[in-house]
Amino acid sequence: MDRGTRGFWTVVIVLASASAFFGVRAESVRRSVQRASAAVQTGDLVTFSKALDGDTVLLSNAAGDGVTVRLIGIKSFDSTGTGDPTSAHGREAVAELQRALANKPVRVMLASPPKDAHGRTLATLFADDEDVALSLVRAGRVMVYTQYPFPAMAEYLREQDKARADRRGLWADPVASERAKALAAQWRKGAP
Q1: Which residues of the chain, if any, have pLDDT below 70?
Q2: 36-190 maps to CATH 3.30.300.30
């Protein structure tokens, strides 16, 4: 086999392997979200299992069943991207979420409606009597997700304005800041 043919097949094998690796990971996350369909109620104390991304977590209810919860009012950048400069902020949001929830009792306050189109539970989570999503907004780790209004939206937006003014977290990064502003404009157009 000549050198060019060998190089071609090497590239094909590397690309196929990378596709399989990322495909399997994405499928495992999707399946864990689907399996985690147990119920929680407002006021329930749950246990943190893992952060699926910067705005979605897997929790265990009192029976030990997995519950996927999407935190209302926030949106994080994708934490899994490799070529996207904003993915570092997604990973920081995941790390902050893990620090905020690990080894602590977590209280649930369900949203209305309590489920989204993907079957995830929509809720505000409290650890040490602090709104976890709001603390992520204060730190500049996530954006306020304004597509769907929620009761604490005004407070979240005030804290986001402070984080932006102080250039905390993603607001210190010009690329992330511009993308966040573009997303906010898009959400305003699609808001009910």
Answers
A1: 12, 14, 17-18, 24-38, 191-192
A2: no
